[in-house]
Automatic annotation (TrEMBL):
<keyword id="KW-0694">RNA-binding</keyword>
<dbReference type="GO" id="GO:0005829">
    <property type="term" value="C:cytosol"/>
</dbReference>
<feature type="binding site">
    <location>
        <position position="40"/>
    </location>
    <ligand>
        <name>S-adenosyl-L-methionine</name>
    </ligand>
</feature>
<keyword id="KW-0808">Transferase</keyword>
<dbReference type="Pfam" id="PF00398">
    <property type="entry name" value="RrnaAD"/>
</dbReference>
<feature type="binding site">
    <location>
        <position position="15"/>
    </location>
    <ligand>
        <name>S-adenosyl-L-methionine</name>
    </ligand>
</feature>
<feature type="binding site">
    <location>
        <position position="61"/>
    </location>
    <ligand>
        <name>S-adenosyl-L-methionine</name>
    </ligand>
</feature>
<dbReference type="InterPro" id="IPR023165">
    <property type="entry name" value="rRNA_Ade_diMease-like_C"/>
</dbReference>
<keyword id="KW-0698">rRNA processing</keyword>
<protein>
    <recommendedName>
        <fullName>Ribosomal RNA small subunit methyltransferase A</fullName>
        <ecNumber>2.1.1.182</ecNumber>
    </recommendedName>
</protein>
<dbReference type="GO" id="GO:0052908">
    <property type="term" value="F:16S rRNA (adenine(1518)-N(6)/adenine(1519)-N(6))-dimethyltransferase activity"/>
</dbReference>
<comment type="function">
    <text>Specifically dimethylates two adjacent adenosines (A1518 and A1519) in the loop of a conserved hairpin near the 3'-end of 16S rRNA in the 30S particle. May play a critical role in biogenesis of 30S subunits.</text>
</comment>
<dbReference type="InterPro" id="IPR011530">
    <property type="entry name" value="rRNA_adenine_dimethylase"/>
</dbReference>
<keyword id="KW-0949">S-adenosyl-L-methionine</keyword>
<keyword id="KW-0489">Methyltransferase</keyword>
<feature type="binding site">
    <location>
        <position position="85"/>
    </location>
    <ligand>
        <name>S-adenosyl-L-methionine</name>
    </ligand>
</feature>
<feature type="binding site">
    <location>
        <position position="105"/>
    </location>
    <ligand>
        <name>S-adenosyl-L-methionine</name>
    </ligand>
</feature>
Length: 265
């Protein structure tokens, strides 16, 4: 079979280190009848060992050349190929009502919007294991009052318990990326630690709060909350967004949600 040439527009860097591949597959810990979907199977580095443990595997792939290779290598009764962009894929259609696992070496150029997209399916997910750019993983698990803490971490920590499980050097890939990578495990909270009254309002407030990191909450949330609102919640409006805890973001969002209900918005 001819060698596949990695395509920059799809952010293709193919994992090839057998030890790291085995570590990831072991972390996924799939059982034969589990429903598992792999995002971006590429040349099958994870696909083959996953199928050794599974009766069936779903994959989402956008590259038609890779799809053709997969169809030549795997029987359709073992591998279902969903052709298209993972950013637009409805993961809820996999198996109605049955929880599923997600795994993948995510394209680094779309990792953040893809993570937000996948978060919408948290209630149907058992767990997710992803290879990502190390700095993205740093942001996902960051704690308040640290340089990496921001919108991505707040929004994902709202829904998931997350753990960095493996650091991966560039030479584990072909071609080697110019950045270090890491593998993260994401497990949906059994019960949300700080449930918001309105998740859409919560998402809006967090995005506004981090709109300009160097500005204060008073400046970034002008139009949503006034000084009397911050005072009622005992939150200093002069604080910067990266100093707030998840619970404080939820408290601010709930205040906005209640005010909108009271005003009939």
């Amino acid at each position: 079979m001819s060698r596949h040439i990695p395509k920059k527009r799809f952010g293709q860097n193919f994992l090839q280190d057998p030890i790291i591949i085995d570590d990831i597959v072991s972390a996924v810990a799939a059982r034969r009848d589990d429903t598992v979907v792999e995002i971006g199977p590429g040349l099958g580095a994870l696909t083959r060992p996953l199928l050794d443990r599974l009766d069936h595997l779903h994959v989402v792939e956008i590259d038609r050349d890779i799809i053709a290779r997969l169809r030549r290598q795997f029987q359709p009764e073992r591998l279902t190929i969903h052709e298209g962009d993972a950013l637009e894929f409805d993961f809820g259609t996999l198996v109605a009502g049955k929880p599923f696992k997600v795994v993948g070496n995510l394209p680094y150029n779309i990792s953040t919007p893809l993570l937000f997209h996948l978060a919408d399916y948290a209630e149907s997910v058992v767990d997710m294991h992803f290879m990502l750019q190390k700095e993205v993983v740093d942001r996902m698990v960051a704690e308040p009052a640290t340089a990496d803490y921001g919108r991505l971490g707040v929004m994902l920590q709202y829904r998931f318990d997350m753990e960095r499980i493996l650091d991966v050097p560039p030479e584990a890939f072909d071609p080697p990326p110019k950045v270090d990578s890491a593998v993260i495990r994401m497990v949906p909270h059994a019960a949300l630690p700080h449930p918001a009254r309105d998740t859409a309002v919560f998402a809006e407030l967090v995005a506004s709060a981090f709109g300009q990191r160097r500005k204060t909450l008073r400046n970034n949330l002008r139009g949503l909350l006034g000084d009397e609102d911050f005072a009622a919640l005992s939150i200093d409006p002069q604080r910067r967004p990266e100093t707030l805890t998840l619970a404080e973001f939820v408290a601010l969002a709930d205040r906005v949600a209640v005010q909108r209900i009271e005003s009939g918005q």
